[in-house]
Automatic annotation (TrEMBL):
InterPro entries with a match to the protein in the record: RNase_H-like_dom_plant, RNase_H-like_EbsB-rel, RNaseH-like_sf, RNaseH_domain
PANTHER family for the chain: BNAC02G40300D PROTEIN, REVERSE TRANSCRIPTASE-LIKE PROTEIN
Superkingdom in the source lineage: Eukaryota
Name of the protein in its database record: RNase H type-1 domain-containing protein
Positions of the RNase H type-1 domain: 8-93
């Protein structure tokens, strides 16, 4: 997604990134989606209405609308930050992209991402 300007905080950044992921997954045509986040606030916002009137509530409502209308099934899992290294690796990569830049991997996942996924899976057996 590249750099995102005018973000107010980490929750805002995570919410926009999550929303873009939901949009992409819906367009590609997947019937189900699992959202994994280390943000309990984001998970709560996606699973309830309690944050719908928050400053970025419109983003929460849009994400929930897409989840309910685009997928047969969806799940939201909260994991510990240490078990969410892939998201942080991709966020760091995105910060270094040009504004508005987008990168998709349809068939082959870059080696660095595969390596971090393997590390996260191994760590999840002990920590997550």
């Amino acid at each position: 997604m590249g750099q995102i300007h005018f973000l107010t905080d980490a929750l805002h950044a995570e919410t926009i990134t999550c929303l873009k992921g939901i949009e992409f997954t819906a367009v590609v045509g997947f019937g189900s989606i699992i959202i994994e986040t280390d943000s309990t606030m984001l998970a709560s916002a996606l699973l309830s209405n309690e944050l719908d009137t928050a400053r970025i509530g419109v983003l929460f409502r849009e994400a929930k609308f897409l989840l309910f209308t685009s997928f047969i099934e969806f799940k939201v899992h909260v994991c510990k930050r240490v078990c969410n290294s892939v998201a942080h690796l991709l966020a760091t990569h995105g910060v270094h992209m040009s504004e508005g830049g987008t990168m998709y991997w349809h068939d082959v996942v870059p080696g660095i991402v595969s390596s971090v996924v393997a590390i996260d899976l191994a760590a999840s057996a002990f920590v997550c």
